Amino acid sequence: xxxVAPHLLIRPGDVGxxxxxxxxxxRARRIAxxxxxxxxxxxxxxxxxxxxxxxxxxxxxxxTGIGGPSAAIAVEELARCGAKYFIRVGTxxxxxxxxxxxxxxxxxxxxxxxxxxxxxxxxxYPAVAHPAIFNxxxxxxxxxxxxxxxxxxxxxxxxxxxxxxxxxxxxxxAVAVEMEASTVMVLTALKGLYGGAILAVDGNIIKGxxxxxxxxxxxxxVSQVVKEAIDKEIxxxxxxxxxxxxxx
Length: 248
What we know:
Elements: E1 18-21, H1 25-32, E2 36-44, E3 47-54, E4 57-62, H2 68-80, E5 85-94, E6 104-113, E7 127-128, H3 131-143, E8 148-156, H4 163-171, E9 176-178, H5 181-190, E10 194-204, H6 211-214, H7 224-245
Parallel strand pairs: 1-4, 1-5, 5-10, 6-8, 8-9
Antiparallel strand pairs: 2-3, 3-4, 5-9, 6-7, 6-10
């Protein structure tokens, strides 16, 4: 019998070369609704794995939970099972006053404030999106008529960061803060794979509308505006995969 991933509970062949990585298991289920013939491959802990097709391309989706360590587990096990292209599909808090809730961010790099990548490689090693992933995301967004914000994001293990510290990164022109992009970028680069991210803005921290400040939307984690933005970024990410598969 072939090797079984100890956390994702998948085998080689269960996933496609292209994988979308939301943090939230609920978002993984939502992404699966965009796929044709989506099949639930496994469900364990924070990890849910689906595989289906999008416009003829075999695509998988795997939730990673919150933070870098579990995202690293997902990338490690997916890579061992045949995945090559990894796009984090997540949310972020904006760090620039002009970025509104519901906008889309496509980072070309990330500040490594996570802990797990430092266990892989020295801190001087950069966290950057693979140019093919970044360009495909920007191209897909443009074709859909969606204007995206590009720039450097801060990937931090700590969610409840002080506003003073975040203002420091704002002063250095970081556009947003989130928790997993640096992990995806660093691990894929070290392995010679392809990694990147697309993020829906769920609050503007500098303006005082971040999730930590305003709390949940009733019993829901995000508002309707953010839900619509997440659907938008899912469509962009899937179209980007189609461009990549066609060599565009």
